[in-house]
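Q: Start with the shorter request: fold the first protein.
A: Done. Sequence, then structure:
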Amino acid sequence: MKRVHFLPRHMAEKIHPLPNCGVISLTTPGDPDAVLHSGWAAVLRLAFHDADKPEPERIVFSKEMAREIVAFLRANEQLDEVLVHCDLGISRSAAVALFIRDTFDVLTYRRGVPVDIRYSQYNRLVYRLLSDAYWRDAD
């Protein structure tokens, strides 16, 4: 991987994929799937609420979801780029993109602009569980 992008759903739905580019589509439970253009080299879809801790009647990011993303990334390391979207392109998608940046040492963009190393609006639970899943499975 060379680059990871994170952005809001409405922007992701407008993008025509470049060759050798994958997408991780994060939606809110109960919402319809994002309507993505065909042609992505690989697609992973997950649905969970943007929460940093368990909350009654909400589906929060889980260890199983983290393992799914890690497996997707490992199976698709040959991709040139990965696009990650959530509803607003701020928290959930940022956590996944920053994890990819920190783990695979790739360039990271938000809405087409390079992301400052100090970006802090990401979902901490998502980032932590992804890191745990990646490094635990690496042993």
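Q: Next, the second protein, separately.
A: Sequence, then structure:
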Amino acid sequence: MELRVGGRFRLGRKIGSGSFGDIYLGENIASHEEVAIKLECVKTKHPQLHIEAKLYKLMSGGIGIPQVRWCGFEGEYNVMVMELLGPSLEDLFNFCSRKFSLKTVLLLADQMIIDFGLAKRYRDHRSKQHIPYRDHKNLTGTARYASINTHLGVGL
């Protein structure tokens, strides 16, 4: 059975996953454009996908920023369909016989992926002043990739 989201996107194979959901290869049924489709369970305690979609729309037009093609919900999932910018890191790793040279690692590090689903404003939108730091914050995201400040409980 063919799975569709947003009425016009076909869901393909899984190409990634994170702490808040899974990412699939997809296709626009009308134009045959390949897209990335992110799914997040609507029952998630702290939904992040809608925040991520807002940030992508705010940064729209920036270099290396994918265009959001559709955002909404389908069945039991929050869904974001976005432009596919290229192969996944896993696909690149497999293409390179599961070995990256130091040069490749350094080139990738220069443009590593930011989890915009966890992003927060750091300035008050009215006053433009930096939002004060808060102590004793719980860890958000994956401990392995969190900053030292996050581990120490420092947050915006």
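Q: Describe the second briefly.
A: Helices lie at 49-58, 89-95, 102-109, 148-151. The chain has a mean pLDDT of 87.
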